[in-house]
Each structure stands twice: as C-alpha cells, then as structure tokens.
Design goal:
The protein is of the alpha/beta class. It has two domains: 154 residues, no CATH class; 128 residues, Diaminopimelate Epimerase, Chain A, domain 1 (Roll), CATH 3.10.310. It is 39% helix and 13% strand. The chain has eleven helices and ten strands. Helix 2 packs antiparallel against helix 4 and helix 5 packs across helix 7. The longest helix has 20 residues. It starts with a strand and ends with a helix. 45% of the residues are buried. Bound molecules: manganese (II) ion. The site of manganese (II) ion has 6 residues, from loops.
C-alpha cells in the first residue's frame, strides 16, 4: 500500500513535497496549491488543468510505483484516490478503463445534470461515493484507496448495483429536505417549493428567469445536483465538518451571476483561506464554522450579484 500523509497545512505539504512525497490535489485556498513534479492539482490557479485521475490513469500510470509516497488534504474523493491507485500501479493497467476515469473526471469538475445511475461506470462511481468512513484523514484515504482497488479488481454484482440505485434515490430526497432558505436577488425570502426533484436545474438563461438566486442548505449528504433545481447559487453547510461550500451549476451561470471569473471574485471578498474554482469552493480548510456563517455568506453573495 502507498504511504499517505494527510495535512490541513500549506507549509507541511510543502515540506513533504520537498522530501519527495507527490502532492495530490493539495490546494489551500488563497495560500495556493502545492505542486510536485507531476503537477497533480486542478483547483484555484491550477484550474486550467484536467482532473488528476484522468491524467494519472492516462499519462502517468505506475509513475510512483517504485516510491508510492503521497501528501493529500481534504476529502478522499474518487478523483484523488483513483490518481493514487494509478500512480502506484495498485491494479493492472487494463483495469483502468477510459470510460470509468472519464466519468470520474467529469463528475469531479461538472457533476450537475449528470445522472450517475444512467451508465455502468456512473454506478461504479456511485458505489465508491457511497462508501462510509471516507473521512478527511490518513485513515480515510487508506480506506478509500482499498475501496477503489476492490471496485476496479472485482467490479459490482447485480445486488450491489441495485443497492447503489436505492441509496442514490434516497440521497436525492434527503438532500431536498435539507433546504433552509431561498432568497431572491434583493435578499428577500421565498417559499421552498414542493416536488423540486422534478424541476430543471437553474442554469444558463434559466438561472435569471426565476426569482430565486441563493439557496441555503444544511445536509449530511451531497446534494448539489438537487439544490440547483431551487436556485443557481447554493450555500451548503456540512454539519459534520462544520464547513461552508458555495457553488454554481456551471461556469456560464457563475459568470452570468458574478461576472468574469464567476466565484473567483467571491473567494477574495469572503476572506483569507476561502477558495476554490470559478464554480465551486468554500471556507478555509481545517476551520470549523457555525451554521450562522452560511446565512452570512448568502447575504454577502447576494450583494455581489450583478
Ligand atoms: Mn479533483
């Protein structure tokens, strides 16, 4: 198994990189991104690059097999974890099929409007995302690497696939129960509509046709694909990690609402340590915030709407 060091700290990531650990998605908001020789990040100033799994699988298979040491931060998501598996050569090369790593890449950067239940590879990714205990820690990353190896080597049977489907439909309902408030462009509250699971996503021109602009949600499950049906800007509070995430469904919508660069302007305005991409990002890594911060973030975003 690879050696994985987890850190919330920019300087620690730099030090480990200098010792020869390859950083995987080591972005620290406005502190910047820590890059190793393979330049495996695509956040913030590195957002022009493709996802890390697609590059690791396609271009760098086995590149760290002889010295599998990695430094990571954040959540052990499929993109980072698949990159570690590919770089370390933990599975045969032909177990890394483009149809799978391309779904991982697309879901990592633009998951909205993408129904994972619509393809076999999507269901595989859904299975990985449903693994419990993939915490923001060294242990979480190790467990996630093992889950990814099992998935690639053994695949899923019919019972597994049916379970992924049931769990995802349940996740969608749970996500929509987590909506706390919806605001219009003046910050006035709007009622939360029923049956939002069937609404189209508020993106492109449709984003400014309705009254809703910013939704505030609190949820134990990932639900951006559902919340964008209610408003084109979502402020999400994750209770377990006490972190605020802000997102727009895509770049065009983000720029329509916030101007060129989309949410990049918002990260600067929200303060030190806030960061991410044009379409999604959040509060400083490793810092716990109260729920009230989600509502304050929504207010500040409403002031920034063009
Ligand atoms: Mn990624």
């Amino acid at each position: 198994m690879p050696t994985i060091r987890f850190t919330h700290d920019y300087d620690t990531a730099c030090r480990l990189r200098d010792e020869g650990f390859e950083p995987i998605e080591c972005a620290f908001g406005q502190y910047g991104s820590v890059l190793g020789p393979l330049e495996l990040d695509h956040h913030g100033t590195e957002s022009h690059r493709e996802g890390v799994a697609i590059r690791a699988c396609r271009d760098f298979y086995g590149a760290r097999a002889a010295d599998p040491r990695f430094v990571v931060t954040g959540t052990p998501d499929a993109d980072a974890v698949l990159a570690i598996v590919a770089l370390s050569g933990l599975v045969e090369r032909d177990a890394l099929q483009p149809a799978f790593y391309e779904v991982v890449a697309r879901h990592d950067t633009d998951p909205i409007g993408m129904d994972l239940l619509a393809s076999d590879e999507g269901v595989m990714l859904g299975w990985f995302n449903q693994r419990a205990g993939l915490s923001q820690s060294e242990k979480g990353f190790q467990a996630a690497v093992q889950a990814m190896v099992d998935l690639l080597q053994m695949g899923l049977d019919d019972a597994d696939r049916a379970q992924v489907r049931r769990a995802d439909l349940s996740r969608r309902r749970t996500a929509l129960r987590g909506v706390l408030a919806i605001h219009d462009a003046q910050g006035q509250p709007l009622p939360v509509p029923e049956g939002a699971v069937d609404h189209p996503v508020c993106r492109g021109e449709a984003a400014t046709e309705g009254a809703a602009r910013v939704a505030v949600v609190q949820s134990a499950v990932w639900g951006f694909d559902q919340w964008y049906r209610l408003a084109p800007v979502v402020v999400s509070y994750a209770s377990r990690i006490a972190k605020v995430t802000v997102g727009c469904p895509d770049l065009e919508t983000a720029e329509r609402l916030f101007g060129p660069g989309g949410l990049m302007r918002a990260w600067v305005a929200l303060g030190r340590g806030w960061g991410g991409r044009e379409t999604i990002g959040g509060s400083p890594r490793g810092e716990r915030l109260p729920l009230t911060e989600a509502f304050q973030t929504a207010e500040r975003l409403i002031e920034m709407l063009r």
